[in-house]
Please model this.
Amino acid sequence: MTVPLELSTRAHQTEEPPISYFIQQAVENPNLISLAAGLVDPDSTPIDEVKEALESMLRDPQAAKDALQYGTTQGYGPLREKILRHVLALDQLSPNDVAFSADDVVITTGSQQLLYLIGEILLNPGDIVITEAPSYFVYHGILGSLGIRTLTVPMDEQGMKTDELESLLTRLEQSGELARVKLIYTVDYFQNPTGLTLSMPRRQELLALVQRFSKSQRILILEDAAYRELRFDGVDVPSLKSLDRGNEWVILGLTFSKPLAPGLKTGYGILPRELMAPLLRIKGNHDFGSNNFTQHLIDRMLRGDLYQGHVERLRMSYRAKRNTLVNALAMEFPRALSPIRWTTPEGGMYVWLRFPPEIETGPGSRFMEAALREGVLYVPGAFCYAKGGPVPNHEARLCYGDASHDELREAVRRLGKAAREVLPMEKITIRRFGGCG
Model:
């Protein structure tokens, strides 16, 4: 008789990530065009730049020895200094303008580790985190594994609707639950999944709201700015962290995965000072520090123009791919009046597609099955909504990062064919939209 194995509560609370099925479909079906996984443009990976930095590092015996040794839990000091200057430069600030320094920077194994570590040091089962709706579904998985209650606020073309957030916080205060609210999470640049950006007025309102409703304890903003450096259109807006000059209210998370290369698996955060010591204690239990060799390599790339030159080329590549995808949508569905709409992002990697309610897009739906038969894959929009709230089932996330231009055009043609299998052609015309409202 086999003796049963007892798993932890957290193991039982941690569900299989929804994207796993779709990645498996893409791997197993070579004829499938995947617009699902958020993979970067393979033709823009910085092979030459990494090679130059690597050879430079290895030619220096002491530098090579340092890179191949253990690092610190917080991360390589010179890289943390460069990261601070880099982040401040994005907001046109100097170190004298803010109350945070390189001592408040931590380097992590991708931004995903930062999200998890923040949950471990701040959240207890039953606590409340507020996110956008829709939002980054992988973060919802983290919250679920920690036993966190996730509440959501809808979006429009300016990002999270702060008037709706105020109403939610007011209701929680009236019900005596405000003390359980610990974090408000936002992907505020070219959001995953919608491609939308939080406007400047909304940024100011969001910061004012957390300050106003922080009564028995401080409510923090977790600013996931993973796509910030991928702007290719429009005017930049300051980070939420730049509005938090005293380093009290905003945790900023960024990554080198999207603007540089995901294989380097290096992210970083800038934290209110009180959080650093507990975070490092838990991170020390995880790994004693993220990959030291990679940190020294990135430090080399930030010394000159290797990094910035690559980012500029990447922006041009993504602008062209964005244009190809939205132009293909307009070509495939040319009629002027239509219930089908999509975002046209000013950066990042995602377009959010909304069908009429008759076209359900979730797993097992007629449209999903037709799309798989035609050989195209997308992320069902329902995955991007937290459990317990309204979950629309007629939306889809399309990623233009990995596919070639020809594949993007063919993928849209296949989506159109799948849609026509579900609804008559006269109901499947299309028009563009600027937001999710």
